[in-house]
Amino acid sequence: MPATVASQWQDRQRRVFQSVFPIDVNHPATHPVRDSLSGTRGRRKEHIPLQSVATQPLLHPGAAVAAGDQAAYDRAWRIVTAHITLPPSATGDNSFGSLAADSQQNLQSSASAEFYEAFEVLVNANALLPGAARNDDVLSWHGRQVRAHYTQRVMPLLAACVDDGDGDGGDEGHDRRKDNHHDERHMAIVMNSIRTLEAALRLYFYGLNQLLSGFARLAHVSPEAAKDAESLNDRFRRDLHALVSNSAPAGLMRSVKAVLVRLAGTILGIPDPGMRGGRDGPNIPNPEDLKVQAARERLLQLTQQLHNVGLTGERFQTLFAEVMDAIMSEFVTGAFAGVWSPTDPRPLSAAMSLSASLSAASPCITRLSDWVENHFARLAYEVLTCISTNNPQGPLPVSLADVKMYQSLALGRLAALRIQELFDIALAWPDSRPALDDLRATITTPARRKQLTDGFSKALQKRLLHPGCSTLEILRTYISIIRTLHALDPTRVLLSSVERGLQMYLCQREDAIRVVVAGLLANPEEMQAQKEVRESSKRQREKAYQDGAGRSRRRGKVADDDPFLTTPSKPSFRTPRGTTPETPLARNPNNAASEHSKHPPKLVELALLLHEPSQNRAASPSEDAIADLDWDDMNWVPDPIDAGDGYRRPRSVDVIGTIIAALGSGDTFIKEFSIVMADRLLSDNSDNNSGGRDSAAPRFDQELRVLALLKRRFGEASLQACDVMIRDVQDSRRVDGIICRERARERERGRNLGRGGAGEDDMDYHARILSRLFWPGLDREHFLLPPEVEQQQKRYEAGYESLKSRRKLTWLNQLGRARVELELRDRTVVVDCSTVEATVIHAFQRPEGNGDDDAAAPPVQKSVDDLYMQLQMDEDLIAAALHFWAGQGVLRRVGGPGSNTYVVAESLVDETAPGSTTGAAPSDSDQPMDEEQQAAQEGDSAAPVAGGGSMSAKELERREIYWRYVQGMLTNASASMPLAQMAMMMRMLIADGFAWSNEELQDFLAEKVAAGEMEVVGGKYRLVKK
Amino acid sequence: MSFAESSQNTTSGSLQANNKLGGTRKPVEPGQNAVKRLQTELMQLMTSPAPGVSAFPSADGNLLSWRATIEGPADTPYAGLTFKLSFEFPSNYPYAPPTVLFRTPIYHPNVDFSGRICLDILKDKWTAAYNTQTVLLSLQSLLGEPNNSSPLNGEAAELWDKDPALFKTKVMDRHKDIEDD
């Protein structure tokens, strides 16, 4: 850096020299001294007359008169120049100023008639001394002298000023600790330079004034010479200023900039970087603040001084513009980043007048406009006025149009900031509404809209659409996005251009539809819980906001336990600016678990939306068409310029509709919906008691509501199955009631007759009768029910067939719930479980005969194989059921972790260390045992076992089909193919859609490879030839 | 003021109407029905495959171009051999028959040396009721029962009846498993 500065400096010096001397060529007095450039100014002057006299005869050998005239001229020249010559400041130290003053006094005292006489001779040389052929303009001589003096004497002094300052510390002041010191230092550099320049200029102007006063005296002799005295003065000043401003050392300009930054920053409310620590960001400064006033005064004074010494040339103006530009950016980011609601409710009456056009402007915009007009533009005006004092009659330095331009610039920056923040704004909906107002007011051009959609899509990809986010999270964010962008742009064009990527991604999430449907069907309790969670998270956030204000509000690194990150209901953290710009949605599992211990997380927002009246008004297509042709609509505006082909103006937000539409085709959705519906209808246990009539009132309000909504969307016919399902459940309640009453009567009769098999009759048994054709996923799972239950089933069947002749019941044994009472040795356990689980635990019941001599009998012990033989049940189901009972503490696994043998845990205290005995009976024979398992089966209906039964069968079928596709493809299309191509072909060729991701397909193929049916060669799969 | 707005409304209204018309007038891409039909056929082939024949769209992802495989039926000279075929479906399929070629060289009375097949259902007897699977099964049966009255390969037709042993040799000579491109 210093080297380049030095070379630049030398370069400039050379240029100055060259600009000084070439004009000397035709000057008689200085002509001979051109070879003695290195000589001092004093010596050169001594030589002038001698040399010129000596050379003259050579040039004009025959003109004696002319020689006399020339001599007189030269004498006059000498007198004048001696009078206004600049003092040689050989030492060049800081005594320069006083020295100048001294010489000034000397000169003033010696200002005599002699000078004016000689001056008159010089000026009127043509008239008075016609013989003097070579004469010169004393003014330009003065100019040359000044320039030479400036370069040789003043500039080293200026450089010394800067060097003194630069001696310590870094040049840009990165070191914050030294900040104040730096400011002082920069100020000192600037002030010293100004003082030096002021002294020098005083000197130069003294000489000029002498000459000008000479002209003034001559006014009567040669009026034309006196006339342009004023313009001469101006020209001299202009030249001098150009010289100063063009040769000012870079270090000086740097210091000027530093000083400008500090003062303007203070005036415009940008906090000092060194003091930012504990306080908040930039704010609109209070004009009454003494500090601000002092800074303003200081800045203007400084500008005036700089202007006086000629340092406010283009470089200064550029500098000032840069500083103001930086300050505007800093103010916008600092004051408004992350501020989406008015923090400062102070009424801005001043701003009201200007924002007539922005009548509905958000607080941020109002504040920003106010700042620009009353602070930013004011400062610019003041400083620029200072600079251009010389021509007050010229145009105003800052016109009203300029102010408008500043405002639009500032708004543009605000827009850029908000675009950056848009993802977080969407997450924080609806608290971020004011920020959207900012955006709406600032997003005015197609280019900015494009910037917005691009930026937002990128943010989506980076922060939402990755495997780390649950589908629920994505959908929840999607809802926020829909509402946010709709608020931003009611025409939905922005939304539709943003959501494409999101929709594509959601289609890959298989559980998306399930999440949506579950959310739609959420019950009021869950909604309430959701509301509470939301409230608490809001409180938490506010608290955190207060705690963290200033410390880590925007710049802090988000810690793992940051509450912003942990509210699963409302992910509303903000992007930490600078440090970690891309925080994926994440949440603390502990926190989530505690908040959702009662209800698993659901997309409850949808259910809440469903209850909003505005959402229920689904716009029918015809309505839309009519609205388009509404000639009287005075608020009509053309479609946005970036709207696509076939664009239609939507009438309402319609979040639900948008989400459903995003999930792909209606068929898939309806299919999924009916499955979820079936689950819910079956899992509803409202009729599990004998008083079936009380609960006979339909409790499917929510379901019916959703159904109605979907019907409006997809048409009545496509949802017929769901209608049937609901009616089935309601009908079967009635039928069940009748059958049960009938059986109760029968029982009563039997008791009256004295026959009493009470043991088997005190079991409640209810059923739901489903229409086979309309229920999805009702596959029969075969297993043997306990004989008691089977008996009940038979009786029920008989009752039904007597009620509805020529109809038969097919029992779906796996779809049922049962309440089981287990009497163990030291406790009684009552569990609600599935029929499969009940059947399995029933198998552990001690055979009737042995029930009494329990003292010696070991607990019943069975393995999966035993149970398989006994129950003819699917082994996976058995294993799952055993696991369930082990979890309930009723069964205990014996024989180590690998074994699949279970034993009844008769007492809670585990007498036998698990794993130590391999299959041997526990040796607690001295304890009396009483084991009685009473299984009270209730109702052959309800939720399918999770992960069992129907789902796995469907999955197996799917795998089979896909395998055939793979075989067909590799047999015919190409013998070997890479994974991606296979997945692509499957996706393209399978008519109802390929349900797997590439990874799932890869896993599947890996299984086939392991089974020896396929092989991988060179990254491509192929079939093994048999 | 109000006049200006209403005139604006008018122009936009007509624009909107144009858009709508444009939307409805969107031409159906040729071959779209054929693709749909072929997708369905593929699904049927996969769910209920016939023994000894299989077919699949070609690897370039063009649904109008398929590749198929026929295993030579037992008790014929072609037993134990597999034959690759190509199907090119016209865009008005199934109202026109596909062009079927043997890609594997085959010695057969009704197939010429460049793989072209003489089979009535692939020519004038084609109806939309046929599909890929029925064509493949017909071809499979053609292997066992050639139509020697209208041969493309006269020598083969002759040898079929006269010298089954030589025929078999010729079949084995001619047959060559082709590698996939």
TrEMBL record, chain A:
Keyword annotations of the record: Cell cycle, Cell division, Mitosis, Ubl conjugation pathway
Keyword Nucleotidyltransferase assigned: no
Residue spans of biased composition, Basic and acidic residues class: 528-545
KW Transmembrane helix (keyword) present: no
InterPro entries assigned: ANAPC2, ANAPC2_C, Cullin-like_AB, Cullin_homology, Cullin_homology_sf, TPR_ANAPC2, WH-like_DNA-bd_sf, WH_DNA-bd_sf
Region (Disordered) location: 527-599, 909-952
Domain of life: Eukaryota
Domain (Cullin family profile): residue spans on this chain: 658-886
SUPFAM superfamilies: Cullin homology domain, Winged helix' DNA-binding domain
Polar residues bias locations: 566-594, 914-926
Family under the similarity heading: Belongs to the cullin family.
Protein name: Anaphase-promoting complex subunit 2
Organism of this sequence: Humicola insolens (Soft-rot fungus)
From TrEMBL, chain B:
This protein's record includes keyword Protein transport: no
Superkingdom as given in the UniProt entry: Eukaryota
Keyword set includes Magnesium: no
Active site: residue positions: 118 (glycyl thioester intermediate)
Key words, A-Z: ATP-binding, Nucleotide-binding, Transferase, Ubl conjugation pathway
Domain UBC core per the UniProt entry, residue ranges: 33-180
Region (Disordered): 1-31
InterPro entries membership: Ub_conjugating_enzyme (IPR050113), UBC (IPR000608), UBQ-conjugating_AS (IPR023313), UBQ-conjugating_enzyme/RWD (IPR016135)
SUPFAM superfamilies associated with the record: UBC-like
Pfam families noted in UniProt: UQ_con (PF00179)
Record's compositionally biased regions (Polar residues): 1-21
Family, similarity comment: Belongs to the ubiquitin-conjugating enzyme family.
Name of the protein in its database record: Ubiquitin-conjugating enzyme E2 2
Lineage of origin: Eukaryota, Fungi, Dikarya, Ascomycota, Pezizomycotina
